[in-house]
Amino acid sequence: MTKRRMFLRMITASLLRRRSRMLIALLSIGIGATILAGMVTIYYDVPRQMRAQMRSYGANMLLLPEDGETLNSEKLANTLSQFPEDALVGAAPYRYVRLDMTSRQQSFTTAGTDFEQVLKTSPYFSVEGEYPSGTRQVLVGKEIADTIGVKVGSSMELTWQPAVTASTGDPSDDWQPGAALAGSAEGFGGSMVSVTAKLDDEAKISEITVDASTQTPEYGGRTAEDKPFLKQFIGKALPLEMGGDIDALTGATVTSTAVVEALNTSHAAAAGAQPRTVRYDVTGILVTGGEEEGYVFMSLEDMQSLTGEDKLDVAELSVSADEEQLNGYVENITQSGQGVTARLVKRVTKSETAVLGKLQALVFLVTVVVLLLTMICVSTTMMAVVSERRREIGLRKALGASDNSIRVEFLGEGMFLGMLGGVLGAVLGFVFAQVVSVNVFGSSITFQPLLLPITVIVSMAIAALSCLMPIRRAVAIDPALVLKGE
Amino acid sequence: MALLELKNISKIYGELKALDNVSLHVDKGEWVAIMGPSGSGKSTMMNIIGCMDKPTKGEVLLDNVDISKESSKHLTDIRRDKIGLIFQQFHMVNYLTAVENVMVSQYYHSMPDEEEALEALGRVGLRERARHLPSQLSGGEQQRVCVARALINHPELILADEPTGNLDEANENIVLELFRQLHREGTTLIVVTHDPEVAEAAQRTIVLEHGRVAREIINENFVD
C-alpha cells in the first residue's frame, strides 16, 4: 500500500466514521456552496431574466429610413434578419397616414401596423374590446373614440386622399404647361383641404377643383362650390398671392388661404390616384394614457390595400440585449447599406442598464457575505474538530508525524469536505436558483456545466482557507500530552 | 554497549527542579523499570528519553547521538526511527480499525504495509480482531494493539508509560508476557510504572524521588 492510499484511507475514515461532526462541517460548506452556486447562476441569469421583464417597458430601438430613402417590408425583414433570433422580442412596423372621416369632417392620423408585434413591443397597451384580427377592422384611440363617439362594435368610414403628389422637390418644377397638379394644406381646425388643378399651354390655371369636405359646410365648405371664388383662379399663373391675386371668400378666410397654399405647394398629381373610402369595424378602444390614444390603428395589409403602396415610416423594436450589444446592433444596421438607420430609445436602455447593474451588485454582495459566513462557520467547526482531536494529534506527533504531515492531513480533510460540499452545493444551488427563477421571474434556467467545477474549486479554496487557523492550532499541540495520562 | 546514556541531566522549570543531576545508563537489550511517586520526575524523564523534551542541563546519548541539543523537528525524526511508544491510556485513533492504527505508525515511519501490520497483530494474538474499531475492543486488546503498533517499525527502544495502569490482572499478565518475548528477541525496554509487580518483571529498577535517583534495584529473580 502506498502512502497516498493510506492518506486517503485515513481521511475517508475520519470523515465517514466521525459522521456527526463532519456532517456539520459538510453542511456548512454545502450550504455556502449552494448559495454560491445559486447566486452565481442568478447573477448570470438575472440580466437575461430581467431583460425579458423589462421589455414590457416598450420598444428600446427604432428603425427609420435614412434621409431620402424609404423603408418597406422587404428592407425591414432584411434588417431584422441581422438580429440573433433570441434577442429580438418583437418588431412592430408603422405606417402613418392621415385619413379623413368625411361624415364627421375630421381627419385622424392612422397607423398601419402588425398587431401581433405590437403586443410584444408595447405590452402596456390596454385594449377595451379586442385587437383587430381580420381585414377592415380598426382599433381606435380613446381620445378619438371620445371625440367622435364610437364604441366597440360600431363602424366608421375612412377616406384616403391620394397622395396629392407623385414627385418631391421644388413644386414650381412641376408647374409646366398642360400639367395636372394636386396639393393640400391645413385648413380650419387643422383639417386638410385638397386642391387639384390643370394648367393650360401657357402654364396658367384652366381648371380647379377644391375638396373642402373636412371644413364646416356653412363656412369653409363653401369654397368648393362658390363659383365667383373659384373663377378668380382661372387664367392665373402660380404662385398666387392671397389678397393680391385672390380674395378670400367671406367667412372662410382660413379655408381660402388653405386653397391658395395648396396650389402654391402643389406637385404634379399622381396618375390615376383616386380617393378611396372604406368602412371599418371598430373592434377595440386603445387606452394607454399616452399619445397613442389620438391615433387610429389598422393592420398593415388594410393600410396597404387602402393606399396601394408598401411603405413604412418607422419600426419599433424590442431587443433583449445590454446597452453594449444594442450599440453593436445599431452600428451593424447603419453600416449594412440598406438605407435604414437605427436609434436607441435612451430612456429605456439607460434605465434597464442601471437597474440590472444595481441588481447584480446586490447579488454579488450577498454572495460575498455568504462566503464569509461560510468561512467563519467552517473555521469554527474545524477549530472544534482540532480541540476534539487534540489527543489524536498528539498521538500522531508522538508516533513521528512531522508538522507538515499534520498540516497536510487537516488540509486534506478540509479540502475533501470542500469537494463534497462543492458538488452538493452545485447541485442544490442549481435547484435553488431554479426555484428562485421560477418563483420570481416565472421562467426556468439552463444548467451551466462550468458551474460545477467553479463551485467545487471555490468550495475547496474556502475550506482550505478556513482550515488555516485550526491547522496552526493543531501544529502547536505538544506530543508529550499523550504521555501524561490525560 | 549503551543504547541510552543520560549524563548529569537536569530539567528546571523556574524554581522547580523536576530532574536534578540524574544519570542513567541503559544497555542494548536491557529491560529497565523506572519507578517513583507522583512528582518524582518520572514524566519529565520519560519525555526526555522519548525525544519530546530537552534537558536544561546535561547530555542525552541515544545510540551514541547526543539528542539534548537537537531541534524539535530532528527530535521527531529520531523518535520516529528509534523509539516505540506505549501509553497508559492506549491512545488509538478512534475512527481507524486496529490494523489501520498499526499502519498509521508505518505511514509516518516509512511505507504502510497491511500484511506486516496484520502479522504484528498476530504476534499480540489479535489477528482476527484486525478490522475492529477501538470502541469494539477491550482495554487489554487495545493495549495489545498499541504494543503491536510500537514494535511494527522495529525500534531500538520501546518506551512504555504505565502500560498496565488501566488493565486488569489477566491483561496485565498478557502485556508483561509480550514484553518478555520482546526482551528475549533483544529489544531494549524502558517501562515507567508505579506498580511494583510490573517493575519486578524488569531486570533492573531505577527509583526516582524528588528528581534524583534514590536507589537502583537489580532484580535477582529475573527470569529470562
Distance between the termini of chain A: 33 Å
The number of distinct β-strands of chain A equals 14
Per the CATH scheme, the topology name of chain B is Rossmann fold
The N- to C-terminal Cα distance of chain B equals: 19 Å
H/E element string of chain B? Answer: EEEHEEHEHHHEHEHEE
Using the coordinates above, name the CATH class of chain B: Alpha Beta
Question: What is the global morphology of chain A?
Answer: rod-shaped
E-strand count of chain B: 10
* Physical arrangement of strands within the biggest beta sheet of chain B: 6-7-8-3-9-10
- What value does the Rg of chain B take, in angstroms? 17 Å
Account of the protein in words:
The complex is a heterodimer of chains A (486) and B (224). Chain A is α+β, with helices and mostly antiparallel strands and 486 residues long. Chain A folds into three domains: 3-53 and 351-478, no CATH class; 59-161 and 275-344, no CATH class; 171-268. Chain A is built from 13 helices and 14 strands. In chain A, the strands form two sheets. In chain A, strands 1, 2, 3, 4, 5, 6, 11, 12, 13 and 14 form a ten-stranded mixed β-sheet that branches. In chain A, a hairpin with a 4-residue loop joins β2 and β3. In chain A, α2 (19-54) runs antiparallel to α13 (451-475) and α10 (346-388) runs parallel beside α13 (451-475). The mean pLDDT of chain A is 85. Chain B has 224 residues and is of the alpha/beta class. In chain B, the strands form two sheets. Chain B has a six-stranded mixed β-sheet, sandwiched between helices. In chain B, strands 2-1-4-5 form a four-stranded antiparallel β-sheet, with helices on one face. The two termini of chain B are 19 Å apart. Chain B has a single domain (28-55, 71-218), classed as 3-Layer(aba) Sandwich (Rossmann fold), CATH 3.40.50. Chain B has helices spanning 42-49, 72-82, 98-109, 114-123, 139-151, 169-184, 196-200, and strands spanning 2-13, 16-27, 31-35, 57-62, 65-66, 83-86, 157-161, 188-192, 204-209, 212-218. Chain B contains seven helices and ten strands. Helices cover 33% and strands 29% of the residues of chain B. The chains are: A alpha+beta (486), B alpha/beta (224). At the A-B interface, α1 and α11 of A face α1, α2 and α3 of B.
